[in-house]
Amino acid sequence: NTAIQEAYIIGSTVGMSAVGVKPIVEVQFADYIYPGINQLVTEISKSCYLSCGKFPVQTLIRVPIGAYGGGGPYHSGSVESTLLTIKGIKIVYPSNAADVKGLMKAAFLDPNPVVMLEHKGLYWSKVPGTEDAKCIEPGSDYVLPLGKGNVVLQANEEKIAEGASACVITYGMGVYWAKAAAAKFDGSIEIIDLRTLYPLDEDLLFNSVKKHGKCLILTEEQQNNSFAEALAGRISKACFRFLDAPVEVLGALDLPAVPMNMILEKAMLPNADKVVERLNTLLNS
Question: Is residue 219 in some structural domain?
């Protein structure tokens, strides 16, 4: 056990890695990772590069993340865009229990530092509509390679041929908002679960966008200046000639924090109804 001091929790993994230990530590809430950012940036992410590979820091940092149930401004935040600006670390974000196991084992075996973001609302499927997050545990040799996404739902080939389909690219809780929304569109929606935010499965994403011509990127983060908006730009550039409409992004409202009041929390966050509305606009554009 460590003290509840995030700079120490994260920084201690440098020393443990140096003596041959493979540390797995947890920052209890994503909102509290900021005191440890200094260690993550100045030591963990740079060590391998600055030592020409002699002193890599192998660590797995688990971070419960996301909003549900009125957790309020200090227990509900999303930090993936902040973390993705740090070069030299890998970031995974599973959406179900099986993926947690497969990605955690891959992260443990990877020689690089890995941050695993785990949505609190998906633990025990605490949020209604996320029952699929509970899975039968895969076998002991189950490993999901980092950097590979997953097609959660495929669109109907006839809809694709008619130009009446779209893909939703998402991760974490967004997978369940997208699945609930897709049920309203009778085979018109393909859903991709990123699983890994860095490295990113660009081949899967670009091929899907080129196939459908319409794309929605769905995130729980506040949308403005987010990872999702940056990804929309990359997709727009790589798939420009194949797009039938601008790449859409749906995220949380641009508020400084998630409100504690659950009505305001619901108003801030995306949900299935908001996804349905945006997909209607996209498919009819």
Answer: yes
**Number of domains present in the structure of the chain:** 2
**Nearest CA to 220 among 30, 80, 45?**
80
Which segments of the chain does DSSP mark as H helices, in order? 6-18, 37-39, 47-50, 80-84, 97-109, 157-161, 174-182, 202-212, 227-238, 262-268, 272-283
Q: What is the pLDDT of residues 65-82, one digit of tens each?
A: 999 999 999 999 999 999
Residues 221, 258: Cα–Cα separation, whole Å = 10
Q: Crossing angle for the helix pair 202-212 and 227-238, nearest 10 degrees?
A: 60
Give the span between the Cα atoms of 108 and 87, in whole angstroms. Answer: 19
* pLDDT 10s digits, 24-79: 999 999 999 999 999 999 999 999 999 999 999 999 999 999 999 999 999 999 99
Cβ neighbour number for residue 97 with a 10 Å cutoff: 19
Of residues 281, 282, 279, the one with CA closest to residue 184: 279
Q: Which residue is it, tokens 């929605």?
A: 216
Tokens of 149: 């996404």
**Residues 225 and 122 reside in one and the same domain:** no
Q: Which of 133, 166, 189 is the last residue of a domain?
A: 133
Map tokens 């660590």 to a residue. 59
Two tokens at 233?
């730009």
Structural domain boundaries enclosing 273: 150-283
Q: How crowded is residue 39: how many other Cβ atoms within 10 Å of its Cβ? A: 20
Q: What whole-number distance in Å separates Cα of residue 44 and Cα of residue 239?
A: 35
Active-site residue set = 75
What pTM was computed for the model?
0.96
